[in-house]
Amino acid sequence: MKVLIVGSGGREHAIAWKVAQSKRVSKIYCAPGNAGIEEVATCVPIGAMEFDKLVAFAKEKQIDLTIIGMDDPLVAGIVDVFEAEGLKVFGPRKNAAILEGSKAFSKDLMKKYKIPTASYETFDCPEKAMEYLETAMMPVVLKADGLALGKGVLICNTREEAMQGVKTLMLDKQFGTAGNRIVIEEFMTGREVSVLSFVDGEHIKIMTSAQDHKRAKDGDEGLNTGGMGTFSPSPYYTKEVDEFCQTYIYQATVDAMKMEGRSFKGIIFFGLMLTENGPRVLEYNARFGDPETQVVLPRMKNDIIDVMEACIDGTLDKVQLEFEDNAAVCVVLASSGYPEHYEKGFEIKGLEAFHNKDGYYVFHAGTKKEDGKVVTNGGRVLGITAKGSDLKKARANAYEATTWVDFANKYMRNDIGKAIDEVVDK
What we know:
Elements: E1 2-7, H1 10-19, E2 27-32, E3 42-43, H2 51-60, E4 65-68, H3 71-75, H4 78-84, E5 89-90, H5 94-101, H6 103-112, E6 120-123, H7 126-133, E7 140-144, E8 153-156, H8 159-171, E9 182-186, E10 191-200, E11 204-212, E12 215-217, E13 221-224, E14 229-232, H9 239-259, E15 265-275, E16 278-285, H10 293-296, H11 304-313, E17 327-335, E18 360-364, E19 367-370, E20 373-376, E21 380-388, H12 391-402, E22 410-411, H13 421-425
Parallel strand pairs: 1-2, 1-4, 2-3, 4-5
Antiparallel strand pairs: 6-9, 7-8, 7-9, 10-11, 10-15, 11-14, 12-13, 14-17, 15-16, 17-21, 17-22, 18-21, 19-20
Helix pairs in contact: 7-8
């Protein structure tokens, strides 16, 4: 079969790499793709939001399945457009992708169906938001209602910070229209865990757990980013946590969306906070996480095409997800200055070191081909992933592999997964 993947980041490279392992797939295309994806797919210069061009391409090439990797096209309704043209596509429809597209919607859904989350208030008037903050308990979390590249969340420790945060989101429009409405919620403490899942509208199958590192600098300092690295599984995601989430969060969310007439088919990403009062939902995403995908899919044993088709056909209950009994760590190599100002266009050297290296992977995020060379083309450039028999070994392997490649202004965090050492050593 022929497969089209829509997107251009490290997540889409990991998806393309996994799809390429399927014996059922004869040809992979990616729009627009990147220099790494080119190794397993034919990249075509069509943007993720160019729906008409994507549909025309899918028809011309007789694509059997299109996989949507990114949030923007999902929230804008690309699945509805493809389905209207009779094309098979993996991802939630527009009315279900709102689960990620609107923080206010998702919080209201959790409140209505008693899915555990932080208490909150929603505002579309900056003056009202500031008035609320006058008496609110600190710290608080401010969230832009719409999509903001994973960066529209501000943790405010003081009232002054919170007031400035409202100004940044709602008046200065740092994230554009995403900040027209904001959610102000209580600050939760505990361990963060990411859990990806496949959903077919009724049934849900949970993948292995992972943990992201959002902040730009070591020690969880600096600005929020799209993610600087991740590891899988999380030692904090215990059997007891899983049992609670299966009942009160995972299936409850799928059932709630169905009750609302927004049947969800595709990927639900659960961002969880393991508080002293039990697991709570931090956020939902309506697609694979980045860079969580880069550590989850290398550990997955199943043919991903079989699982995706089961989601589309409503037969996910017949699928048994299987994952390797090991661990994986991904360290993001970024351009110095990310997530603010950074330069692009530097040659990347050493990529050939990953060829035929079992258990080591280099997933391209911001790269492109230029005059026959692979050069940097984004803030997050590469995701260096390695597996190991346990988290400590996987972490050592991943950091060793970061030395194999080099480019000007290369930057990375040096403490990805460091917090797990104390758990693993016990």
